[in-house]
């Protein structure tokens, strides 16, 4: 929470600075400091297919509502594909044609801050900083500064499958020990205990186990720390699941669409780290139980945050900030998240989710962990992942796999 | 007796004695030859069949072999993929991008191939191998400079700007040059003696000889452009200017189901299949003659 305090302090300092600047007759630089009548121009917002917000048509009424308040700002919303997202942004930035506002996830923030192209946005949230969830603000901050105003959140926790629990005669596990305890009965009943998606980002696979073991990916000096005793314990736990066929072997190395996986077929006792709205698309909600995040030594769960960032290459940062402030206002945030079926990043924006399972899972929003706050977070994952797979397939011991990966990660970090 | 000596060959083409001798002992029963070919054909066609079958079973877990003969067929995935009002403009953009590229790449590659194969000029080999060396440069490295150049030319978000950077195709030029080298010089010299100029020689003598490789290259160039994603993604700035690959991708959520992905693949794949069927005769001949892999 220290980071959040840093953000609050920074916001106060920025607000004070802006006040001084405004008194001095400068034109400021935030939505709050500039009268709507004084701001005009055109901005471009790049969004992505998020739930129902997957077409330009979805955004038309939103822009109309915006223009009722800010008639002199033209907003063009372009829904871009997820694939090639980073290449497209980098190319556009290099060519001087980046959008003014862009939808970002946490691991994009450090990467683009390191390039020096993101505009700090603490001033946009300064008036109601307390309303934004701390976990969301932390996820979208880097080195004590907020670079993306949180709009949406998702949260994962343990999800159990009633049909498997009933046939095996066991209860929904919430700890590693409980999971191992019920595993033989589940296997005897012809099911898997859980599944480990070996090909997805480690944010959603190995890292939560690492955190639950009390470990961390990088230490405070920015060096690899995942190969410590906690990391070995986490990987050994997963290896035990793999060796005993408590998880399907195929999912360790093969990319599976959810509906094709063992979980999509209701053939696992529980998912340790899953977003219930995703599961509900393919599994009868009546067959699901949402429980608390899994605990090893500690309790930890993955979640993601979607935020709105502003490139400092924008010719119209004032208008961009007003647009971001508008979209993250309580009314618009609720409207967007209701349609997209996500949770809101404001504590005051609740109660719009109707499904009881999603409501149940929403209570764990404040504990989510999103990504390694490092500009090379994705490259680090690419280095570690093959070694995790090798250990799970029995080709390396957990210690050797993590130590080799750590050497590679430290070499990468040294190169910068 | 005379009749019996004639009857066995009546109405048949008789192979020369030398051929019969040479072929003696090499004849195989059709089954032994066809069986491996049929197996290879089945293995090759299976992914395409699976793609279509899976696309017709949205939201269903795929179990082999049961899912290969679906009991219930649904077109929901296709409705979802084709649901965009812009699908026709995306298809049009893809068609223009691909067809214009095929025509222009073939023209420029054949011209360059002719020059490098048959014309003698200072530094020919150095220039040629310098071009070929560019094949070693990963495409991603040239993406940003290419983007900036097209941007400076005012070509972003236009079909000509999309097509222009892809016209200088070194691989196509290399293959054309290798093919044209095998055309006898005497043919060109005879034309020149008859008074043909350079363009006439290129147009009337060289081009007709290159039909097989043209068909092969044309098919490949069409496939490269029809399936291209990254360059159209960065060059086309608004949804109405997307090509089909980018447009369909822009509608996909992060957790899109397999059937929807397969339906998109089928839609993108169909035109390439039709092109291949139409040019199959030339394509196979071109592959055989050029050794193209």
From TrEMBL, chain A:
Membrane-crossing residue ranges in chain numbering: none
Entry annotated with the keyword Transferase: no
Keywords of this entry: Signal
Signal peptide residues on this chain, from the entry's feature table: 1-22
CDD domains, per the entry: PBP2_TMBP_like
InterPro entries for the chain: Bact_solute-bd_prot1, SBP
Pfam families, A to Z: SBP_bac_1 (PF01547)
PROSITE patterns registered for this protein in UniProt: PROKAR_LIPOPROTEIN
Gene3D superfamilies in the record: Periplasmic binding protein-like II
Record protein name field: Extracellular solute-binding protein
Source species of the chain: Phytoactinopolyspora mesophila
């Amino acid at each position: 929470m220290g980071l959040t305090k840093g953000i609050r302090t920074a916001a106060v300092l920025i607000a004070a600075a802006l006040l001084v600047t405004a008194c001095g007759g400068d034109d400021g630089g935030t939505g709050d400091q500039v009268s709507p009548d004084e701001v005009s121009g055109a901005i471009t917002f790049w969004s992505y297919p998020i739930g129902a917000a997957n077409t330009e048509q979805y955004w038309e009424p939103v822009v109309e509502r915006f223009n009722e308040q800010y008639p002199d700002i033209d907003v063009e919303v372009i829904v871009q594909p997820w694939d090639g997202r980073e290449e497209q942004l980098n190319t556009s930035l290099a060519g001087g044609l980046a959008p003014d506002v862009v939808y970002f996830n946490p691991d994009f923030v450090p990467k683009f801050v390191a390039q020096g192209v993101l505009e700090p946005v603490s001033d946009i949230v300064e008036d109601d900083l307390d309303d934004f969830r701390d976990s969301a603000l932390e996820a979208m901050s880097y080195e004590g500064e907020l670079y993306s105003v949180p709009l949406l959140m998702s949260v994962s926790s343990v999800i159990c499958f009633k049909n498997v629990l009933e046939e095996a005669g066991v209860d929904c596990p919430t700890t590693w020990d409980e999971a191992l305890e019920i595993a033989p009965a589940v296997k005897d009943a012809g099911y898997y205990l859980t599944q480990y998606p070996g090909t997805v980002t480690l944010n959603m696979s190995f890292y939560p186990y690492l955190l639950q073991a009390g470990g961390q990916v990088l230490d405070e000096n920015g060096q690899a720390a995942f190969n410590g005793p906690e990391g070995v314990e986490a990987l050994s736990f997963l290896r035990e699941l793999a060796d005993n066929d408590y998880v399907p072997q195929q999912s360790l190395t093969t990319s599976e669409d959810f509906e094709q996986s063992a979980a999509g077929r209701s053939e696992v006792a529980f998912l340790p780290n899953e977003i219930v709205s995703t599961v509900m698309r393919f599994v009868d909600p009546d067959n699901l139980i949402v429980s608390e995040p899994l605990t090893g030594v500690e309790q930890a769960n993955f979640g993601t945050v979607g935020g709105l960032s502003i490139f400092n290459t924008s010719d119209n940062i004032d208008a961009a900030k007003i647009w971001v402030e508008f979209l993250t206002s309580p009314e618009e945030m609720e409207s967007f998240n209701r349609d997209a079926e996500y949770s809101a990043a404001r504590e005051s924006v609740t109660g719009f989710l109707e499904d009881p399972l999603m409501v149940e899972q929403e209570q764990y929003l404040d504990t989510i962990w999103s990504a390694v706050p490092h500009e090379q977070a994705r490259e680090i994952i690419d280095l570690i992942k093959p070694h995790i797979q090798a250990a799970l397939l029995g080709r390396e011991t957990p210690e050797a796999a993590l130590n080799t990966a750590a050497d590679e990660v430290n070499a990468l970090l040294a190169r910068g | 007796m005379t009749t019996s000596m004639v009857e066995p060959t009546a109405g048949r083409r008789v192979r020369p004695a030398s051929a019969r001798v040479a072929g003696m002992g090499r004849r195989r029963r059709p089954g032994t030859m066809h069986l491996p070919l049929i197996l290879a054909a089945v293995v090759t066609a299976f992914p395409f069949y699976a793609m279509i079958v899976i696309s017709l079973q949205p939201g269903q877990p795929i179990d082999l072999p049961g899912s290969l003969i679906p009991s219930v067929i649904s077109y929901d995935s296709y409705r979802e993929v084709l649901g965009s009002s812009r699908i026709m403009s995306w298809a049009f953009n893809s068609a223009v991008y691909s067809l214009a590229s095929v025509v222009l790449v073939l023209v420029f590659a054949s011209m360059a191939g002719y020059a490098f194969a048959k014309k003698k000029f200072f530094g020919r080999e150095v220039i040629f191998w310098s071009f070929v060396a560019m094949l070693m440069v990963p495409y991603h490295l040239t993406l940003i400079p290419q983007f900036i150049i097209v941007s400076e030319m005012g070509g972003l978000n236009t079909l000509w700007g999309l097509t222009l950077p892809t016209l200088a195709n070194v691989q196509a030029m290399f293959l054309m040059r290798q093919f044209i080298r095998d055309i006898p010089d005497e043919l060109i010299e005879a034309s020149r003696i008859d008074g043909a100029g350079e363009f006439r020689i290129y147009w009337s003598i060289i081009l007709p000889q290159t039909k097989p490789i043209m068909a092969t290259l044309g098919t490949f160039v069409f496939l490269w452009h029809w399936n291209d994603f990254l360059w159209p993604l960065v060059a086309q700035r608004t949804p109405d200017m997307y090509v089909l690959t980018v447009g369909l991708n822009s509608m996909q959520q992060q957790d899109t189901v397999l059937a929807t992905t397969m339906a998109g693949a089928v839609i993108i794949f169909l035109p390439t299949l039709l092109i291949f069927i139409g040019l199959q005769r030339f394509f196979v001949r071109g592959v055989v003659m050029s050794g193209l892999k």
